[in-house]
Amino acid sequence: MARAPKPLPAASLYVVLALLDGEMHGYALMQRVEEQSDGAIRMGPGTLYGTLNRLVDDGLIAETTDRVARSEGERRRYYELTGAGRSAALAELARLQTLVQHFRGHLPGGSAA
Amino acid sequence: MSRDALVIRAYGALLWLYPRQFREEYRDDMVLLVRDQCREESPWRVLARSAVDLAITIPKQHLEAHMRRTPSSIVPLGYLALSLAGIGLMIVGGNAVVAVVIGFAVAVIAAVLAVIAWRRSAPASEPATVTASWWRFVVAGPVLFALVILGAGVGVNAWFLGILAVLSGVVSIATGLVLGVMHLGHRIRSNPA
Prior knowledge:
The complex is a heterodimer. Helix content of chain A is 47%, strand content 8%. By secondary structure, chain A is mainly alpha-helical.
């Protein structure tokens, strides 16, 4: 039986989920991840750019700097999901949904699936 | 120089600790990000948070510069080893106050960084229950006993620390066994078939 792909680390997961909304630069990504996680994930610059670097290497995201209009003096790099990245983000969402369904009975007021 | 400028300059200087390739690729973006953060909150808070981030990501980036992909546990394990070295220094230090204080500081700071790095490297969906870590407590006991025996073997005269370590080891093993039973019970309830 084929093994399921290893779950993404928390930082990578939140980054790919944030990019489902469209391309973003580093600071916007950091804010979006913090907002999505209710403040639980607050990435520092090293964690953020280390994660982006790895996701670019893995082909899950790509820089779009050349395609985005720049205001004068703007030096920000933008990132977007690749096709593989979108698939990975949706697969992670499906996996999390399955996990929640499996343990729904343990939630306050929840009923077993 | 304003506080913001001071913090940004200090942060920019610390970025020299990253491997050259990573630094050349992302230095400007990281400084820009810290500048953005300083506009919205206290620069000292930004610097403190960034210092923890640097302590975790610098060793990781150096390892990744030599290996295509580092195991996610390698940085937490590195800090755990450093923490144990701090405990070792406390034991070897015996009655030397400076050695004990430095060893204690190293042990505590490295242990905190190990926990932060471990939490950050874990998958978001992995159930991070403390009961799943029961074996760590069980293993910690014999490790503490071994350190006491090692310390006694090399003639360390620190009986108070020795007693403390032995008691901590016993408590750790007992805690691990209790957590292990709880974890087993949880798994049986989760998978009744």
